[in-house]
Each structure stands twice: as C-alpha cells, then as structure tokens.
Amino acid sequence: MKSPADIASRLAKQWQHPFWRVERLLSSDSWPLVITIGKPSARQFAEQTGLVQAHVQRWRQVTVGKVDFQPVKFRAAAEPVPMPVQWVLHQPSEWAAATDDTQVQQEFAALETLVAGVNQRYRELFVRERSLWRNKAIDDLIDAARLADVLQPGMAEGRPLRLLKGLGVDTKFIERHSVLLTRLLDERYDGMVSQQGLSGFLDAPDDKDHWLLVVPLAPGLLPFQRQRITARELAEVGLPGARVVVVENEQCEHLLPAMPDTVAVLGAGLDIHWLAGGALQHKVVAYWGDMDTWGLVMLARARQALPSITPLMMSETHFKAFCHDSAVPEPVPAELPAAGLNEREVAFFKFLKAQPQGRLEQEYLPVEEVQRELLGWLESR
Fold this sequence. Notes:
By secondary structure, the protein is α/β, with parallel strands linked by helices. The chain has three domains: 4-100, no CATH class; 109-202, no CATH class; 211-380.
C-alpha cells in the first residue's frame, strides 16, 4: 500500500521526463489518470492496526482529484472495511497539484500560460524542451513564438539581423533569442534552420561562419579525406581541381563516385553566398539538392550567385522516376522565388507544390543513378 507522499514523489519524477509531459499535457486520451494505491495485507490489517488506520486517514485528507474507497474483506474483520484503492486525477492541473512539489507547480503554471499564448505548432516543442523556457520571461517567449510565425527564408536580403524592421521587437531581440528562434523555426521548416544556421536561413551576414564539408573526389587534391571550411573562406580561397559539385545535404557523401580533378562541397543548404566569390569564377560547378520546393529555392539562389552553375537530378523527370517509394509530404512548401529558375524549373516548382507528396530527398535516390548522372556531367565537361 502506497502513501500519498510515495505517489506524489513518483508523479514529480514523471514530470521531469519529456515523454510523460508530452503525453499528459497534450493528449486528452491520457485522462483520467488512475493510480493504484494498493491494499494492506491480511497480516498488516490484523497485526498493524495503527499503521493501517493512519494510512486510511492520510488518504481521507487528500483533496486533489478523487480517492476511490472500496470495501475490502479481511479475515480479522467481521464486515468489509472501506480502503483507498485508487487515486484518480482528471486533468493536468491535478497532476501538478498531486506532486506536492513547488517547482513542478510553478513550471506547470508557467507552461500553461506559455502554451496558451503561442501557435499550436510550437506547443509540443515547449512541453518537450523545458530548457527553452525555464527561468525566462514568459512575455519574451511568447514574442519569440509570434516572431517565428512571420520570419521567412531570405527576408534579411543580406542585411544584418538587427536591421530587420517592422517585426514588433527591438533591434537585438533576434540575436538574443537566436537559439529559441532556431528551434521554433525548425518546427515550421522541418529542421532546415538548424542545418543552415539562423543567419544563413534569413540571408543575413553571420559572424559565426557556417562550416561546410569539403571532400576531394580524387586522391591528391587535398591532404585530407574530408575537411571543414567556413563559407567565408570558400568565397575567398581557391579549391583544388577544375570542377566543384555543390551538394545540399552532408548525408549524400557516400553516394558520390570517384571523379578526377573534382571536389565536392556538402551541407551548403541556403548558405550559398560563397558561390559568388571570386574563387569559383573559373571553375565548372554543378549543384545537386533535394527535389522539393525548398531545393528549388536553393537552386535559384545558387544560380543568382553563380549564373554558370549546372543543376543535377532536379527535374520533374527525375522526380517521377523515383518518387513512388521515397517521396513524402513537404511540411511547409516554399514560395516561388522571383528569379533564378528557368521556365522548366518554375513548372517543376508548381508541379511539386501541387503534389500531396512533393518532397524527394536527394539521399534516397539510387546510388547507381546518382553516380551515372555525376559521371555523365563529368564527361560533358
């Protein structure tokens, strides 16, 4: 048989686990929460009468939720004796109160206010990750969530973040809350902002340079098999070899074939200012990204930075050939870029946006097809 304090301690520990917070705070199916108290044994009832009476009295004093008393038969009693057998909690506020833990109750109150003030898409994030909001001003958190609803890819247009205007926050709000905004925007854009960095996503200069992965596709081009280089350095320092393959996602490294005189740059994403640098002006450059609306936005930016760039495996023909087993819905489609795509690519963009499953990530293409395309581009150059 468990005391109210025993169960309160267990409930407080469960609050610390993201799984239970998400399950109980966001799902009505979790309620009511029925907790078994347990009954005294026949020996306890017969030999420890005072202990049993105190146990019953403690449960009669509980005012949170409902304590279910049921008649229990004992050999030492002439009649069934009412015993607490279940503690029933009907809603999240009763869970917090039942913990008898001041910190849990304070966190629940803060989270209740926060969740009520933000877009529903962010609620699970806040419930799951307490580090995003603990010991922070609730008003600032709500302002950050509202700001995340209006921030758009590329909206800085090359300007520092502090120069963004008309957003309803002070000039340094974005910089102060960059980690939180990144996590919130990840909910809108399927993790893209963490991959690219907030500044790269917004097309703003970044003092903390985005690091890209450089991989030589032929021996002897670099003294390493792979190397991290900042975007700023890539714009200024010439890469070895005559050809460069720019790849949106790092996960595609294993798909790349050996290619003479060629270097691959992986993990570029939206951070492609470096393509406009002088270091690539005399090289043959190809771009390969996801087949979705965001992939085409990145292609458009790449072409604006380097008009001679050649797209690979980013066409309606390729999509139709390989979408059957691997295409998925695109969580938040991009808006058609104003420039940077040709007529066929614009048509492909509109085609993808109309599909219920309009996203085909590049790493899901067959390795044979990827290598055939890359080697075909190599031969044509």
